[in-house]
Amino acid sequence: MRFRTCTSPHIVPGHSVGGLMRQVLYALVPGTLAMTWFFGWGVLVNVVLSVLFAVMFEALMVALRRRPVMATLGDSSAVLAGWLFALAVPPLTPVWVLLIGTAFAIVVAKHLYGGLGYNPFNPAMVGYVVVLVSFPRELSLWPSPEGIMEASLTFWQTLQTTLTGRLPDGMDWDAITRASPLDMMRDSLVAGQTVTEVTRSPIFGSFSQTEWEWAGNLFLLGGIWLLYRRVITWHIPVSMLLSLAIIAGVFWVFDPDQFASPAFHVFSGAAIIGAFFIATDPVSAATTPRGRILFGVGIGILTYVIRTWGGYPDGVAFAVLLMNMVAPTLDHYTRPRIFGHSRDGHG
Amino acid sequence: MQLHRFHGGLKLPDHKAESTARPLLTMGVPKFLYVPLSQHIGAQTECVVQPGDRVTKGQRIGQAKDYICANVHAPTSGWIRGIVDHPVPHPSCLSAPCIQIETDGHDQWGEDRMEPWPDWRERDPRSLRERVRDAGIVGMGGAAFPTAVKLNPRPGKRIHTLVVNGAECEPYISCDDMLMRTHPAAILEGARIVAHMVGAQRVLFAVEDNKPEALRALTDAVPGAERDFIRVISIPSLYPTGGERQLIQVLSGREVPSAGLPADLGMVCHNTGTVKAIRDAVLHGQPLISRIVTVTGPGIREPRNIEALIGTPFADLVEAAGGYRPRVDRLVMGGPMMGFAVGDDAVPVIKGTNCLLATRPEDTPPPGPVMPCIRCGECTRVCPANLLPQQLYWFAKGKDFDAIQDYGLFDCIECGCCAHVCPSNIPLVQYYRFAKQEIWGREKDRQKADLARERFEFRQERQEREEREKAERLARKKAALAKKDSEPTDKKAAIEDAIERARAKKAAQATEPPPDRERADN
After folding, report:
1. Which residue among B365, B372, B386 places its CB closest to the CB of A339?
2. Which of B135, B148, B146, B129 is nearest to B44 (CA)?
3. What ipTM did this prediction achieve?
4. Measured between alpha carbons, how far is A172 from A167 in angstroms, rounded to an integer?
């Protein structure tokens, strides 16, 4: 009897790229729902439109590169990039901003570098940074939960606002938006207030603004699930959050009036989602265990530096992109000691 | 005893109960046996029988001609029908020379059977090693490296510990498990013989904890007085803990140096089946002519362990295990992680055949499309050699053979953990095998080129030297001539005398010159 031959292992494979990406997507659901709850339908509209655009650009690029379109879309990596981009930009961002951002993420940052597996930079963050530096006005308007509540924007009104870039008649941007915690902290400190005065504001919860805390908690939950499922390893999230907390703690202990607490930094902005979902993008991160720890530490420190002394309220996106640049170098210098070799690499 | 752990590894479903549920079956003698001349790592044996010869059980039919080689014996009595090219268990699916034996069913030993040595304790290690060599014993865990070579003492290395490897960490395989359950005393006797041979003061018998029956059988078989000498140790089930280097790390916490051997740590490691084969060779004078094979997998009706003669076609074994289930489409020799698929079930059992695994498409779906590496690092997490498989893959793909060696390609044991966890379905181990082959090939080419260059340079040098010597000879001659011209010698004087005489004669003749001579003078 004749048999088919093929290479080992002769056992059902444990994972697939599509499966891993989809698990990350599931882990994003609770945090995304929390953000929708607090910031309105705009979050969901962002996600749906960005994912749609990202998949569209992915299909276009794959077709142009004469690769199998359906098989490539099946890896879900474009969906993930679109989703992460959507969570980075404020709700009610005009549709053309979403289009430009996703185009940069997928076309430039991903496919011009060779597609999945070959991109040196995190595509979602490239897309976000491009629109952030290009359209600062559109990117600075975060709706406030109360504003959304009062305005009670329906799903259709939200969609209309996103598509036209104009609020429905009788509504005012100032009424429904409010500075995000990082913006608020930054502006107030510049204005001469102390950290305690800022955090005493009723909109603050234990560490940061309540809704950001809750979104952070739920993203944290998703991240812990990813760790449990072994989709990601602990190295990057733990080292990034720990280094952010430690450097914030040092300055905070030194002058608590001028520098926000470590907890504020961890629970504000993109720190948690960045630690578990963005910095852990395997393609653009370091890949050795020690390299990943250094990679996370770098992001944590750079995030703090940019937040505290840089030109932008949040620094996670920039920190991730900067560390993407050094990832290959980190890998080179953090090779693990091979079994049976001495530390210096000789047998 | 405190155990240690190695980096990475995989917890795999063991699938051993399927084949251990039925008792060990000793297969009858098949009509034809195909005994490959090469069943081991090293040089091929030389066939020492002719078609038409009658052979007896245990008669040597393939003679080792090299240090790293192992004799081949007739597994039963019968007639040599030919030395034929027959499919052999090899990933290439190619054929190789096999001795075809038509069996006579008498299973008769001959006069030349090796003498049983029940008094092995009185024999010196050298003659015992010679016996192992004569018996053609190779590592029976699958690698099939000639055991006598491994037993040879290495200068300056004292062995204190013999490790008997009963880990059997790969899923589905249970031949060692079955052997330990059924023949614990024989295995222990084998361990004593090997310990005597290498001069070890203790024996560590390591068995994975998923084989409680084997552990109990062995523990019960160790006499109370020997409890300090032979220790049966239950080790955690974790693939690939049965790898020699991994096992030694688990037991001792020490790493065998990359370019070194377990002997560097004073240890030597032999597989359970090998130890039993050594005992059979020493106590009964029986060469390695049969072994236990696990015939298992979802594609087999009645999975079980079968003791079969070397040379038995796989098809006969499957028949003995109830035959195939419908839709079976893959037949693997070895386990699912390190085994290879054979193209034909006519291939015979060889010394290293520990397992036949038959699967259907629903059990082992054809691998999905290969996706790009996303550098997820899962392979790094599971690599027992603590390598960076994803980097090795890049270098193999880019044919950067210097970098890949720098990243430890030759420390890879090809266990397949990385390929199993790879979400992109990349056949990583294939890439490493490719790179190793390329490097060996280049090394060979380089050696050949070096040899050719040396020969060319030698020839050139020789020609130059010959030229030079010729020139020197000439120069010497010339010099000698010149010397003769300047220095009058007896010879010269004699010549001058002769010339003088000739002149005188000429002058005398000149008085009556002949006509032609006169003309010539004009």
Report:
1. B386
2. B146
3. 0.86
4. 7
Rounded mean pLDDT, B403-431: 92
- The reply to whether B132 falls in a domain is yes
Of A2, A230, A283, the CB nearest to B344: A2
Task: Say if residue B123 is in the same domain as residue B219.
Answer: yes
Q: Is B208 on the interface with A (CB under 8 A)?
A: no
Same domain, B111 and B47: yes
Give the number of beta-carbon pairs within 8 Å between A and B: 169
Whether residue B519 is predicted with pLDDT greater than 70 in this model: the reply is no
Which residues on chain B are in Cβ contact (under 8 Å) with A287?
Answer: 375, 377, 380, 388, 390-391
Instruction: With cut-offs at 50, 70 and 90, classify the pLDDT of residue A188.
Output: confident
State pLDDT tens for residues B22-80. 999 999 899 999 999 988 888 889 999 999 999 999 999 999 988 889 999 999 999 99
Strands (E) across A19-83 are located at none
Backbone angles phi, psi at B97, to 5 degrees: -60, 130
- Sequence-ordered list of residues with C-beta below 8 angstroms from that of B140, at least 6 positions apart, any chain: B271, B272, B273, B274, B277, B291, B351, B352, B354
Of B366, B388, B416, the CB nearest to A6: B366
Chain A touched by B212 (CB under 8 Å): no
B184-198 and B212-221 helices, crossing angle to 10°? 60
Instruction: Starting at the earlier edge strand, list the strands of the sheet with B355-359.
Output: B25-26, B304-309, B290-296, B355-359, B330-333, B340-342
* pLDDT tens per residue, range B240-278: 999 999 999 999 999 999 888 999 999 999 999 999 999
Determine whether the interchain pair B364/A2 forms a contact, defined as Cβ–Cβ distance below 8 Å. no
List the single residue in B366, B368, B385 with the smallest CB-CB distance to A16. Answer: B368
Provide the domain limits for residue B496: 367-512
Q: Please indicate, yes or no, whether residues B274 and B386 belong to a single structural domain of this protein.
A: no
Are the C-beta atoms of B290 and B5 separated by less than 8 Å?
no
In a domain, B521, yes or no: no
pLDDT at B392 over 90: yes
Q: Quick check: B93 contacting A, CB < 8 Å? A: yes
Are B357 and A10 an interchain contact pair (Cβ–Cβ within 8 Å)? yes
Output the domain CATH number for residue B135: 3.40.50.11540
Residues B434, B300, single domain; the answer is no
Tell me, yes or no, whether B57 lies in a domain: yes
Question: What mean pLDDT is predicted for residues A261-289?
Answer: 91
Q: Provide the number of structural domains found in chain B.
A: 2
Beta strand B304-309 with B290-296 is antiparallel
- B292 and B185 in a single domain? The answer is yes
Range from B208-217, B382-391, B438-447, B509-518 carrying the lowest mean pLDDT: B509-518
Tell me: do B398 and B274 sit in the same domain: no
CA pair distance B374, A287, nearest whole angstrom:
10
| B320 and B390, same domain (yes or no) | no
Mutation for testing the B interface, residue in A3, A17, A116, A229 having most B CBs under 10 Å: A3
Final residue before a domain boundary, out of B333, B350, B383: B333
Strand B355-359 versus strand B290-296 pairing type? parallel
Q: Is B331 on the interface with A (CB under 8 A)?
A: yes
- Residues in A closer than 8 angstroms to B378, CB to CB, are 15, 230
CA nearest neighbour of B177 among B311, B415, B15: B15
Residues of B in contact with A331 (CB under 8 A): 388, 391
Residues B214 and B283 in one domain: yes
Give this prediction's pTM.
0.84
CB B87 within 8 A of CB B346: yes
Inter-chain contact A117–B93, Cβ cutoff 8 Å?
no
**pLDDT above 90: percentage of residues in chain B:** 73
Within-domain flag for B340: no
